[in-house]
């Protein structure tokens, strides 16, 4: 389940990256990273593995293709980091050199793969089945060493870059990608152990689950880490919208009572309990209108008529006292029993930056008074 999940995340990430507005060499490198990750874990699926062998007529060709895709993962990761760290002019020759090195490595891997005798098809354990074949063992050592170097550099550079950037989501994504690269290093250690297992009389199957967890788990974390800067701000915006939506809804009982007492307070007297469009403006208007309503009620306030409820303390007590004061003032306003505004100070309020949250608390308390 882990490999198909990782493949699915990679393909979805690639789709959003392609459809997104990001352009430039760094964005292209990240897109290639998603592509190679998708290929790696898709080809590693036993059903796809068998299909590749059947169509090509080459047993275990999926082994070379999937591990070649891993080399592409490493190359694209380093390319993305290089473009993030340097200007395009400085980064381009470095990325070109890295790309040639990885292409050369894959060519050597392909030669060793062709020379090795991997004729027995194995869709699930071919990686460890042939670890005793010296040509394949050399192939495996080259592959995991290159991947190890890339993952080590990814850890070091991601952590270093995460401390230097100003964007919070980019910093978080880089740190998460570094953790995922550590999972890749766990996979590397397991593959080195595969090569050493034969001479030491050990069975590589004993730690194969560790290799797969390192590869799959690390791959998922790295995918999320690279994609966080793209969708993280949208998640934050959604959380902000949901917070405003709940605030707008929860302010309705208090606003509705004030509007009923004085319809002139409301810009839109027909506004409902909820709103979706123009929520920022509507929430701002609702807060302003409640504040206007509280000022309008000052002449009708009678502090001596408010009894503090028992069993409450702190902000909850203050909110219920203010809600009760508003309810009492509304009752007095309905019969025109006004007091002198000079002898009735305005209710105490918290700092302005917390005013909306405070009014939400008061409105919730007011709502409980309505249902008593």
TrEMBL record:
Bilayer-spanning residue ranges: 61-85, 97-116, 136-155, 176-193, 213-232
Pfam family for this entry, one: DUF6545
Keywords, alphabetical: Membrane, Transmembrane, Transmembrane helix
Entry keyword Transmembrane helix: yes
InterPro entries the record matches: DUF6545, MAB_1171c-like
DUF6545 domain location: 241-367
Protein's UniProt name: DUF6545 domain-containing protein
Taxonomic lineage: Bacteria, Bacillati, Actinomycetota, Actinomycetes, Pseudonocardiales
């Amino acid at each position: 389940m882990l490999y198909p999940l990782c493949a699915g995340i990679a393909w979805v990430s690639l789709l959003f990256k392609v459809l997104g507005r990001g352009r430039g060499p760094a964005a292209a490198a990240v897109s290639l990273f998603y592509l190679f990750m998708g290929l790696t874990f898709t080809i590693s699926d036993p059903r796809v593995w068998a299909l590749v062998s059947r169509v090509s007529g080459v047993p275990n060709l999926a082994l070379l293709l999937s591990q070649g895709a891993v080399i592409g993962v490493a190359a694209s990761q380093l390319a993305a980091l290089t473009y993030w760290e340097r200007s395009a002019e400085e980064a381009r020759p470095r990325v070109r050199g890295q790309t040639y090195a990885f292409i050369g490595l894959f060519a050597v891997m392909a030669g060793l793969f062709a020379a090795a005798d991997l004729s027995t098809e194995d869709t699930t354990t071919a990686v460890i089945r042939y670890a005793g074949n010296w040509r394949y063992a050399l192939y495996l050592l080259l592959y995991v060493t290159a991947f190890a170097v890339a993952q080590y550099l990814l850890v070091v550079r991601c952590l270093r870059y995460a401390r230097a950037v100003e964007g919070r989501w980019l910093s978080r994504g880089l740190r998460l990608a570094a953790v995922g690269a550590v999972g890749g290093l766990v996979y590397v250690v397991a593959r080195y152990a595969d090569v050493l297992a034969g001479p030491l009389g050990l069975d590589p199957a004993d730690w194969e689950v560790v290799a797969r967890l390192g590869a799959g788990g690390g791959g998922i974390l790295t995918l999320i880490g690279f994609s966080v800067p793209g969708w993280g701000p949208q998640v934050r915006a959604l959380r902000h919208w949901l917070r405003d939506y709940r605030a707008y809804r929860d302010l309705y009982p208090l606003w509705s009572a004030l509007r009923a007492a004085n319809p002139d307070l409301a810009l839109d007297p027909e506004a409902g309990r909820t709103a979706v469009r123009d929520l920022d403006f509507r929430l701002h208007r609702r807060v302003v209108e409640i504040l206007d309503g509280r000022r309008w009620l000052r002449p009708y306030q009678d502090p001596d008529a408010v009894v503090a409820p028992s069993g409450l303390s702190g902000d909850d007590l203050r909110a219920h006292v203010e809600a009760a004061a508003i309810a009492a003032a509304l009752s007095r306003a309905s019969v025109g029993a006004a007091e002198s505004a000079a002898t009735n100070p305005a209710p105490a309020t918290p700092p302005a930056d917390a005013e909306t949250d405070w009014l939400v608390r008061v409105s919730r308390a007011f709502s409980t008074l309505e249902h008593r």
